[in-house]
Specification:
102 residues, mainly alpha, 4 helices, extended
Amino acid sequence: MNKRDYTFILAGIIAALVIAMFVSVFASSFPDGLKKVAENLGFIDKAEEIIPESIFLIPDYVFDAVDNELWQTSLAGMAGVFIILAVFGVVYLIYKAAGKKK
């Protein structure tokens, strides 16, 4: 990769962090997808017994360690970006290592 590629990647990471931190506070607080279906069909309690929310890193997209509700959501968004970047980084390193063996 050249310097332009690194600049483009860095700009993308910064844009993702800005969006995650400042736009995530406007996300709906209503349950989404499968959780909404589980509530509507009445099996949410059974699902929470089997998989408690305490095992999740970011339950309901908030960090409970922070008192401010806006920061809870913003930090959760930022953490989500870093988690995705870490996963992508590992996959990229595996791809590069596999390419060197050929």
